[in-house]
Amino acid sequence: MSEPPSERLDELIVRMDERGALAQIRERLDAGDDPAVLVEECRTGMERVGRLYEQGTYFISALIMAGEIIREATELLIPRLAAARQETGGGKMVIATVRGDIHDIGKNIVIALLDADGFTLVDLGVNVAPEQIAETVERERPDVLGLSCLLTSGYEALRETIELVRAQSVAWQPHLPIVLGGAAVDEMVKERLGADAWCADAARGLGVVRALLA
Ligand code: B12
Q: Which atom of ligand 1 is nearest to the CA of 182?
């Protein structure tokens, strides 16, 4: 473990100190810090940026800059996350960010973790229509479907996707497990839309997916 840093990582992200944030991540990785902890600290920073945007203190340019910092951070973190994991699982997941939503940073972290865990991933990318997701599920016949949604305006797309997939997949799988992730989902959304699980961070997501397939 490294010495406690002079400035918190989430604070550097909130201040848009790209160089400082990336330098701290490199140093702490070299000192043996857990990459999953660093991902969580980045997520906290992004959440704070999101809140400042919501309050009108930050503008869209801040979301873009913070997005760029976290994209670079995940480039450093993903290989380390993958290397730190023992392959335990397996199974196949189709994953997508739903229609109308282009956020993909969190989804890509989930993919890296599941891939390192031995999963086969079929990544449809972002802004994916319910029909395309349902067609892919039909073709690939995964063990689990993962849907990412960061916008509250994405609920309708989530609902349509879940209904369509459930209606089609019943022919070969009585109940295909569906797991939701991203800032717009919670227990209530999961219950209302009839998904099987949800999670707010990738590390827990891995446990949730394993539990669904157990
Ligand atoms: C970065 C960012 C952007 C970037 C995205 C870059 C990219 N390539 O993804 C850009 C600048 C493009 C952007 C655009 C917009 N954004 Co934005 N954005 C964010 C921000 C600040 C961070 C998101 C992020 O990457 N977090 C870091 C990752 C690591 O965390 P995560 O996404 O939560 O993912 C973790 C878990 O949720 C989970 N997970 C995620 N997906 C999945 C899937 C599965 C299957 C599983 C198991 C787990 C899982 O694991 C991940 C890792 O731990 C959020 C704030 C927030 N609180 O999330 C706003 C936020 C999501 N954005 C918001 C908005 C409003 C927008 C815009 C509409 C702004 C505008 N006026 O144009 C556009 C939307 C464009 C569109 N059509 O999608 C709002 C949404 C509000 C709402 N209620 O709907 C938020 C919440 C900000 C806010 N508080 O207002 N944004």
A: 37
